[in-house]
Q: What sequence folds into this?
């Protein structure tokens, strides 16, 4: 989210199903190789060493090699997190990068100096089919460098539909309606109105980071001005996320064990109906399917409401992307382009649907969701199709302070006020912005 992370730090979305995975060893491998390829063109494909989507990576390569028997794909792996980021930067700068790279979209991509290191893919046949929200996250003024892989997901309010039905509640479109629903749930007794799980501190950020599309709905250039140090969280509309975090605590709407509960605890509460609403990533549907399969159809999702219904917009995390470095040339370049195109073809889409659990819609029209998906996914897809979704901050700005989750825990626990928390976070991002050399800081 960094708007949970710069993408991985505190969000841990990789661990819950949003990242591109890998197979094999945890050590990074070079993209070279002198093995006998039997006359085939051999290309290398680098992914991180997460196990979350290992089956997808393995299946994609197998299906591609079957479709293109004259091409062999060797999978290279890299560490996750900062070590992996540094390796990618180093390999791109030294010309040692694999022929196809799986990496983040958004602000982390911009740090790779894509105009100088990556191949412009804007003229590829599939490029016209990608979603405009996604396109922005892999583009500069000079080109479009990424192709989507795996689904998007969202930061939303997951809710138990049976609890809502029993109490006659409707999906809220404003924050006041959300609070009203929560107070009715509290009055009915026996069910925690809002689940929070500060035992895993990264989960505390959802009401702030998941509110970001509401911010841009009110001020479209907020991210740009924030990056230029001309906007801050101490002012509306961005302050609202901290205010909402404080309000649910002030009104005693939380589960009793909010300070120690983990995400697994929260999802179980949501699934068994002892908790009604949980601000969380929709990619968590994979965990619900695994641990509480009978409850999958009981869980829905709605956008974290803004103060005004017209501004209520779902915050979306765009998928990872496939890139080709400029060092891929000749037959290797052509083979790399074929792999990227295959991943975004109907055959590649089938691999993704068969081996992963979507947390939202895909970012390219050639890849569609299965006929039957959990309600959470259908709910996210409707916001996107209705043009009521916007990208999370991390896709629009490189700035995210390292202490946001700790600050959110303090605000959400009543230790700090919303105003104090917002001020602390504005101070928290200064050092990072300066380290990145961003003008205005």
A:
């Amino acid at each position: 989210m960094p708007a949970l992370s710069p993408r991985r730090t505190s969000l841990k979305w990789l661990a819950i199903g949003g990242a591109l995975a890998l197979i094999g060893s945890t050590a990074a491998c070079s993209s070279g190789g002198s093995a006998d390829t039997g006359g085939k063109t051999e290309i290398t494909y680098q992914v991180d060493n997460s196990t979350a989507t290992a089956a997808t990576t393995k299946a994609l390569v197998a299906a591609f090699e079957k479709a293109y028997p004259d091409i062999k794909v060797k999978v290279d792996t890299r560490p996750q997190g900062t070590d992996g980021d540094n390796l990618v930067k180093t390999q791109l700068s030294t010309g040692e990068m694999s022929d196809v790279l799986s990496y983040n979209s958004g602000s982390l991509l911009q740090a790779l100096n894509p105009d100088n290191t990556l191949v412009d893919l804007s003229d590829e046949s599939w490029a016209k089919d990608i979603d405009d929200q996604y396109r922005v996250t892999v583009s500069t003024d000079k080109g479009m460098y990424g192709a989507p892989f795996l689904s998007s997901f969202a930061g939303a309010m997951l809710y138990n539909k049976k609890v809502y039905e029993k109490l006659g509640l409707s999906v809220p479109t404003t924050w006041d309606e959300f609070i009203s629903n929560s107070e009715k749930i509290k009055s009915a007794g026996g069910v925690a109105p809002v689940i929070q799980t500060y035992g895993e501190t990264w989960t505390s950020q959802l009401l702030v980071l998941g509110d970001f599309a509401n911010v841009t709905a009110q001020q479209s250039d907020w991210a740009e001005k924030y990056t230029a140090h001309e906007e801050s969280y101490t002012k509306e509309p961005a302050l609202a996320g901290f205010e909402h975090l404080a309000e649910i605590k002030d009104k005693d709407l939380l589960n009793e064990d909010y300070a120690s509960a983990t995400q697994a605890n929260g999802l179980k509460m949501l699934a068994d109906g002892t908790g009604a609403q949980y601000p969380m990533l929709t990619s968590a549907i994979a965990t619900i399917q695994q641990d509480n399969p009978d409850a999958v159809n009981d869980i829905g999702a709605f956008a974290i409401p803004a103060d005004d219904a017209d501004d209520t917009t779902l915050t979306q995390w765009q998928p990872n992307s496939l890139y080709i470095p400029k060092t891929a040339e000749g037959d290797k370049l052509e083979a790399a382009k074929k792999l990227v195109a295959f991943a975004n073809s109907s055959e590649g889409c089938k691999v993704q649907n068969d081996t992963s659990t979507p947390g939202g819609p895909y970012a390219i029209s050639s890849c569609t969701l299965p006929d039957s998906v959990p309600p959470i996914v259908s709910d996210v897809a409707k916001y996107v199709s209705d043009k009521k979704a916007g990208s999370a901050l991390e896709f629009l700005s490189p700035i995210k302070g390292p202490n946001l989750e700790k600050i959110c825990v303090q605000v959400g626990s009543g230790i700090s006020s919303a105003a104090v928390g917002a001020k602390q976070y504005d101070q928290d991002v200064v050092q990072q912005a300066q380290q990145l050399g961003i003008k205005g800081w």
User: Anything to note?
Assistant: DSSP finds 18 helices and 13 strands in the chain. The CA atoms of residues 370 and 419 lie 44 Å apart. The two ends are 23 Å apart (CA to CA).
